[in-house]
């Protein structure tokens, strides 16, 4: 698995004077976006977890970018004016922990090149193209096994030309270390060494298994932007070509306005297309360990939370909690103010737990003082509740009630399936002991993985609890993974890769940023609802802003199915209501959707309702 990328961005860009006097080359824009931003976006989409940028000239531009995107780490080459790209790479080497991608900062390229490199069998391989006639080519000579022998800007120096260097490579840490050693050995005679020189030298001297291969994509669309001619050529020809090729691989867009599975990015969809692997391999265990570690960090402070993964939907995670976290002899209070609260109490009844159900309106806020009195005086050991009641969009006051419950020694179990990764949660701060969520809601991955977040001490206590079922047992699943680095049963392998990608993208957006985007979509929706004179079921102040239940107009002309089919024909999917005592339809605004798309949906919604005389 390739987790890191290094972008060498220390250079002065002196052949683009005027543009790069006070700005690094990577910030030159094409199509309204800095070329390095576009490169970073492609690396993130290709599943890179950390991007190390070797900076020098005008490094503050990159430092500012790193403040905005926590996936970036800047390493400054203070001697950038007197060293070459190898001097910059040398300083980044310490941060590299394994196989990585190495890129130049002044490239525009088709993202397919990253896919091809990542999927290459060889672990050291550089990308090459056919003839570009760019006027600044670095030619590559290869041996009979397509390994790099030497490179030159002068074709006459080489005994044959295999391809042109693109400036994107996949290398092992071992190769990087050898390049660094080569550079250090030649500091005196070649202080301005370029990284290709170190690569050629290392490849030539390497044992057969460590040589650097060349992957040649004949018709590859890319350009290095070193001077005004390159820039003009890129703007006129290469950039539009790249945009067109990438657009041809876009997946048909369907905007899901149902409350999960949510709309995913193309990169999340494509992340499932990867080499087959037996999930008992250590490498796959690493993927799952990373996933549960990163999820834990989203739910609480470092080391405070353990996240246990199960193959199954959100309800599986709910059933894990209810069946594994409440020992015999307990007394459990279950709050039911919607379909998901009802579901939790049904699960508890299947396991014949001693419960009392607190029934409350599906659209009015909970009576907090009365509930607190109940919790304090009812002799309860456990409290079970839903954070965001997806039935209606009602957001329950979990932090207030769970903190209170914990102060009274009550263990708290929360269904956060449709709130996690949108609402800011810290299990310690909010008094939550166990919490369930799933891969296909606000985290924006594919369906198939349920997860249970556990406060560490609370989890340890469950070790001695009775095993009421087999597949969904929390402690067994947890300790088996700890011991073996494997799940007990076959995990949904491809969904796991897409969850990994979804986590990377969530970290880039941040949970606060995600909620701000969701809220912006909600604002657009609510404006249209008001304009149409429709009524929302839940008072605004009590709404999650993640899903909205809208009361159906009282006219025989209205039909949910007609509205649904009309929206669906325009690639929007909406959802019927789920409440017995009110006729509603529901519009969720979670997933990879943008306010402009919600705007387009509201145009359709207005067209439909005006058509039936509203
Ligand atoms: C979606 C959801 C679930 C789980 O539903 P699945 O279909 O099992 O994924 C559970 N609780 C809430 C609050 C939900 O929104």
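Q: What amino acid sequence fits the structure above?
A:
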């Amino acid at each position: 698995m390739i987790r890191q990328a290094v972008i060498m961005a220390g250079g002065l860009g002196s052949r683009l004077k005027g543009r790069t006097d006070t700005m690094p080359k990577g910030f030159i824009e094409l199509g309204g976006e800095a070329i390095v931003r576009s490169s970073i976006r492609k690396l993130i989409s290709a599943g890179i977890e950390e991007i190390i940028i070797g900076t020098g000239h005008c490094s503050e531009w990159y430092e500012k970018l790193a403040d905005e995107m926590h996936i970036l780490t800047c390493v400054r080459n203070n001697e950038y004016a007197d060293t070459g790209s190898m001097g910059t790479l040398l300083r980044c080497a310490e941060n590299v922990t394994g196989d990585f991608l190495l890129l130049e900062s002044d490239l525009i390229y088709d993202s397919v090149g990253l896919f091809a490199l990542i999927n290459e069998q060889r672990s050291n391989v550089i990308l090459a193209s056919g003839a570009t006639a760019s006027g600044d080519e670095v030619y590559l000579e290869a041996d009979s096994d397509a390994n790099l022998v030497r490179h030159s800007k002068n074709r006459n120096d080489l005994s044959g030309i295999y391809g042109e260097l693109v400036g994107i490579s996949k290398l092992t840490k071992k190769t990087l270390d050898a390049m660094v050693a080569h550079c250090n050995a030649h500091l005196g005679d070649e202080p301005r060494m370029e990284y290709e020189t170190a690569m050629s030298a290392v490849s030539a001297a390497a044992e057969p298994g460590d040589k650097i291969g060349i992957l040649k994509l004949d018709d590859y669309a890319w350009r290095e932007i070193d001077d005004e001619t390159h820039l003009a050529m890129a703007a006129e020809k290469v950039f539009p070509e790249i945009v067109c090729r990438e657009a041809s691989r876009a997946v048909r867009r369907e905007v899901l306005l149902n409350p999960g599975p949510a709309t995913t990015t193309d990169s999340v969809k494509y992340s499932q297309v990867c080499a087959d692997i037996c999930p008992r391999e250590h490498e796959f265990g690493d993927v799952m360990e990373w996933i549960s570690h990163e999820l834990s960090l989203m739910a609480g402070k470092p080391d405070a939370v353990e996240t246990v993964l199960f193959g199954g939907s959100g309800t599986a995670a709910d059933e894990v909690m209810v069946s594994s976290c409440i020992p015999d002899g307990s007394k459990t209070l279950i709050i039911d103010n919607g379909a998901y609260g009802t579901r939790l109490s049904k699960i508890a009844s299947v396991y014949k737990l001693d419960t009392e159900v607190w029934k409350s309106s599906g659209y009015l806020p909970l009576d907090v003082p009365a509930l607190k009195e109940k919790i304090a005086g009812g002799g309860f050991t456990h409290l079970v509740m839903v954070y965001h009641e997806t039935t209606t969009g009602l957001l329950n006051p979990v932090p207030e009630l769970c903190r209170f419950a914990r102060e009274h020694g009550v263990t708290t179990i929360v269904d956060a399936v449709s709130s996690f990764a949108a609402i800011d949660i810290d299990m310690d701060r909010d008094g939550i002991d166990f919490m369930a969520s799933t891969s296909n809601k606000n985290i924006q991955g594919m369906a198939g993985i349920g997860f249970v977040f556990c406060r560490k001490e609370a989890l340890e206590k469950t070790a001695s609890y009775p095993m009421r079922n087999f597949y969904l047992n929390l402690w067994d699943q947890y300790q088996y993974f700890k011991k073996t680095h494997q799940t007990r049963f076959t995990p949904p392998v491809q969904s796991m890769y897409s969850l990994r990608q979804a986590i990377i993208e969530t970290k880039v957006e941040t949970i606060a940023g995600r909620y701000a985007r969701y809220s912006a979509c909600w604002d657009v929706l609510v404006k249209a609802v008001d304009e149409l004179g429709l009524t929302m079921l839940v008072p605004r102040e009590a709404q999650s802003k993640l899903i909205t239940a809208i009361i159906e107009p009282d006219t025989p002309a209205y039909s949910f199915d007609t509205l649904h089919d009309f929206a669906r024909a325009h690639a929007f999917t909406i959802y019927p209501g789920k409440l017995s005592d009110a006729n509603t339809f529901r519009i969720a605004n979670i997933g990879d959707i943008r306010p402009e798309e919600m705007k387009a949906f509201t145009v359709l919604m207005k067209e439909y309702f005006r058509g039936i005389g509203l």
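Q: And what stands out in the fold?
A: The chain has three domains: 4-248, 267-508, 511-611.
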